[in-house]
Amino acid sequence: MVTIDQDYLQTFSKSADLGRGLTPEAILRRAELLPDEERRVVLMTLRGRLSRELVSSITGVNKGTVTRRLQRAGARLHDPMVIQLFDAHCLLPQQHRQIALGRWLSNRSLEDLASAHQLSVQQVLRMLDYVRGWFQGARHARTRQTLE
After folding, report:
1. CB–CB of 135/84 below 8 Å?
2. 103-107 long-range contacts, Cβ below 8 Å, gap at least 24?
3. How many CB atoms lie within 10 A of CB 125?
4. Is residue 85 within 8 Å of residue 18, measured between CB atoms?
5. Pair 39, 32: CB distance under 8 Å
6. Best CA proximity match to 25, nearest among 46, 4, 6
């Protein structure tokens, strides 16, 4: 699994079109942070251009499981909050970004995140609430700018 640190986010921010975060490079870069099972099927499908049937036979799981993994991964990769967390202009503290991406993109448990960051579960929950509020405010500000 890729570690989410300042260098990773800076490198990503410089290498992708973060205005929308939808370039193939941006999606593949975010895919590096997915849980292992989802990351494998996404990379085989996007980078390897393999069909779901072929991915199913390679991984040894049925086609329906491959499809569900791709759907879950797609929802995470295209989540507007996740895309915004990768933005070079994101002003959130580094630890908030790491925890938010760990939770919403990598699907790590609260306990795992708390342990990794030497925090309590309550502190992690407060940080995630803060990030949600930040995102709502940022989205509201962007909407106002487009209306003016």
Report:
1. yes
2. 103/128, 104/76, 104/79, 105/30, 105/33, 105/34, 105/76, 105/77, 105/79, 106/1, 106/33, 106/34, 106/35, 107/34, 107/35, 107/76
3. 16
4. no
5. yes
6. 46
Using one digit for the tens of pLDDT, what is the confidence trace for 101-148? 999 999 999 999 999 999 999 999 999 999 999 999 988 877 766 666
Nearest to 85 by CA among 75, 99, 71, 74: 99
Backbone angles phi, psi at 102, to 5 degrees: -60, -40
Residue owning tokens 């996007």? 46
Residue 18 has pLDDT above 50, yes or no: no
Summarised one tens digit per residue, pLDDT across range 28-69 is: 989 999 999 999 999 999 888 999 999 999 999 999 999 999
Between 17 and 46, whose confidence is greater? 46
Spans of all domains in the chain: 6-147
Among residues 1, 74, 78, 84, the alpha carbon closest in space to that of 35 is found at 1
